Amino acid sequence: MGRSDILEYNNVFSRGDWEKILDAVSGPKWYFGHGSFVEGDKRRGIPFWRIDLKDNEFFTSYLLNIIEEKTNQQYEVFDVYANGHTFGTQGSYHQDWYDDRGRTFLLYANDVWKLDWGGKTAFHFKDGTDYFHVPKPNSAVLFPGMIPHAAEMTSRSFIGLRITIAWKLLLKEQ
After folding, report:
1. How far is Cα 56 from Cα 165, in angstroms, rounded to an integer?
2. pTM here?
3. What is the DSSP string of 84-124?
């Protein structure tokens, strides 16, 4: 797997849907302690913030239909959640799947992002090369979950919460 396996999407959702997404990830719904990789039956790694969205049909049905249309694929939803990083809470390199049907659709859910805030998603390939995606508002990457990746730390000048929404998906058999 390489760089060509990571697909980028800009202006993923309509303004109305985008505003609903931003509303869903604002407020006191966050909890701290989620980690990037599973060890046995526990999440490990550097902890960060999370909102569970798997029981929210807006994310698991309505937005999923838009994702399927944009990617021209059909998926089964394994999980959907928002994750958030503040300064000092970068992620650990990890894989989301050990099944080649596994995909992650990662939406960048900050309404504003400045390049000097850092916070890129870093991908590392077996050939030793790397790719970095800047968290532009309402952009997303779709990638095979077997590609190791991590959230880079935000810079000290960023005083908010770097938010992504991760759809953990399995390609449906065609």
Report:
1. 13
2. 0.91
3. EE-TT-PPPPB-S-SSTTEEEEEEE--S---GGGB--EEEE
Please give the radius of gyration of the chain, using alpha carbons only, rounded to the nearest integer: 15
Burial class (CB in 10 A: 0-12, 13-18, 19+), 70: middle
Report the first-to-last Cα separation within the chain, whole angstroms: 22
pLDDT at 12 over 90: yes
Model pLDDT for residues 52-86, shown as the tens digit of each residue? 999 999 999 999 999 999 999 999 999 999 999 88
The CB density around residue 52, as the number of other CB atoms within 10 Å, is 13
- C-alpha torsion angle, residues 79, 117, 153, 164 (rounded to 10): 0
Indicate the pairing of strand 75-85 with strand 162-171.
antiparallel
